[in-house]
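Justification of computing resources. Each target in the renewal requires a structure prediction run like the one illustrated here; the chain below, 415 residues long, is used simply to show the kind of job we budget for.
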Amino acid sequence: MSRQPAVEAVPGVRLRGLTAGSPESTVAAAERYGVPGYTSVAEMADREEIDLIAITVRVPEHRRLLEPVLESGKAVLCEWPLARDLAEAEFLRDAGRPGPRFTGLQGHVSPTTRWVRDLIADGYVGEVLSSSMICSFPGGGAMFTSASAYTADAANGATMMTIPFAHALDMQSVVLGELTRTTATIATLRTQAVNTDTGEAIAKTAPDQIAVTGRLPGGAVASMHFRGGALRTTPFVWEIDGTRGSLRITGDVGLPMSAALAVEGAHDQEALSPLELPAEYDRFPQLAGTPAHNVAHLYTEVAQALRAGTPTFLGSTTRWSFTACSRRSHTGEPENSCPASTAATDLSGLKSASTSATVSRAIRNRSSPSLAIAGFPDARRVRLPTPPPEPGRLPHALPTPHTASPSAPPPPGPR
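Resulting structure tokens:
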């Protein structure tokens, strides 16, 4: 679990309350961390001493827990994926009162992502010609535990497409820009899986093969191939070639937003050799190699945005628009039915900089923004650490509603 170690590591952010999946879990976690336990998210949203609520539960539960926070206008950070599908994400975007809303695309602000972005901008590879990414995702294959079995059902919105692929797409957009003119081939080759805890067979509708190609700003060609249940091949490799150099980024696990990433580079005829991350990019080197590393950077950026009172809101629905469009080939629609500029168009259309002046003022007047977490993990399974911050770029966030619309109709499908 990465949230509590990350919160503990960020100076100026304090945990002020939590709620969990059951009264027993709430009591146990509250006692473990010495903070109040609340009976519901709505109760936390009413507390004036809480500045930000983090939603950290399974995707199907996000909407139910987000709605009372959105109605209150309190700042909220929801881990990614935001919602089960594009319709639900758009509903959440427009629901409730205006207020700061962030999504947990932590790879967006990871030290390696920001460093590689700057290497490219500074001309390390020259003009970018191609980007090739391959990911071997250990999940999404033929075996699931009882805890992960819900991810076999695409309707739950927690698949290889919506988690590692969407995170990687976001990281690529930071480094190289948005992918356009895309072609996608998506398949579910294993339609049956096994629950390894019970031995039961379970139906699988989540894709286990995702291959996407497209063009990047400037004309470079990009490819992304994600393979579910691939246990023997390279976990993650991303190669960027240009007119005068190359970069190769590798990860130790097929979850690029959480992996420990290593970077190699070369110019002209040189062989690739390791490059060392400059110290100024990493606020939390003591967390390097753990899932909490990038999450700590995310919480730092969110806290700085709230203190400044001027968070920049980027569209989470951009990632959902892209994945929904790509999935058309998976459901039998023509692969070219996805407009070439979907991702870029949606992003530019969803930018907004409005926020709640009342919330922002209150946070600026406090020395430490206060956080409450919904869906807190079992207290016995959490590790703790500690250390420093520093300014940086803002993370992805849900766009503030264009108009407050608490009565917006819900998207189709079950709650």
